[in-house]
Design goal:
With 235 residues, the chain is α/β, with parallel strands linked by helices. It has 4 helices and 11 strands, in the order ββββαββββββαβαα. Helix 2 packs across helix 4. The radius of gyration is 17 Å and the shape is globular. Bound molecules: zinc ion.
């Protein structure tokens, strides 16, 4: 990805719908519509930010993962990628995700694990069903969460995004606590980074990834972020 970053800035007083490009455009009727935010006011009292200068969120339980590296020089963090995950799929209370993200998943512990235990992946955050937040990678570093991906013509979304996993599945409702925590994370990120969009993994890797799935209610996150019911894309 060119590390120059998209420096286009929207007027502070208006929010525009996301502008979709080419084959990445989801159908207008698709409920999984990414969120466009006003340009983040990174100068807004960082001293009071819940996100430390080195990228750790206050209140999050730290589970440092080796599955990360340096962001490319000059890569602005402009995107939040929302994921959904559970290990084993559809089972919620275990420590499978935590183990996967820290390379401690026992391939023999569950039939499904053999297919994923070798992966070297991690998001920055995991929001559990009860709202508890785990952080694996400081936001200043590049976590390996999105894989092959494109957002608005920019490839390798890991370079310029923060990845937030919600414990869940594509089809089961996420919890109210998860929406609130996710919104808090996005707000904290915006005190440090010029976050311009929140999108799903399925938006940056269409056809390859389906999470966070139709169960994720973008309208709900929009309301929590104060963005309003902006649900229509202009192709
Ligand atoms: Zn994902």
């Amino acid at each position: 990805m060119p590390a120059s970053g998209d420096s286009s800035r929207e007027p502070a007083t208006r929010q525009r719908p996301v502008e979709y490009h080419g084959h990445n455009a989801p159908p207008v009727s698709d409920p999984r519509v990414p969120i466009a935010l006003r340009p983040a006011s990174t100068a807004s009292t960082p001293a009071r930010s819940r996100l430390s200068a080195d990228g750790w969120l206050a209140g999050a339980a730290r589970r440092p993962s080796p599955n990360c590296d340096e962001r490319p020089a000059g890569a602005d963090v402009t995107l939040v990628v929302v994921h959904g995950i559970s290990l084993p799929p559809g089972e919620f209370r275990g420590d499978g995700v935590e183990r996967l993200f820290t390379n401690r998943l026992d391939a023999g512990a569950h039939p499904y694990y053999a297919s994923v235990a070798h992966l070297r992946v991690s998001a920055h955050f995991l929001v559990r069903r009860d709202g508890r937040v785990l952080q694996f990678v400081p936001c200043v570093r590049r976590a390996w969460h999105a894989g092959v991906s494109t957002w608005q013509g920019r490839e390798r979304c890991n370079d310029f995004s923060v990845g937030v996993e919600l414990e869940g599945t594509d089809t089961r409702a996420y919890t109210a606590r998860q929406y609130h925590r996710l919104a808090r994370i996005v707000r904290a990120l915006r005190t440090r980074y010029p976050i311009a969009h929140v999108a799903g993994h399925s938006d940056v890797a269409p056809g390859r990834k389906s999470d966070p799935g139709p169960a994720f209610e973008w309208r709900r996150l929009r309301e929590l972020l104060g963005v309003g019911p902006r649900a229509r894309a202009r192709a």
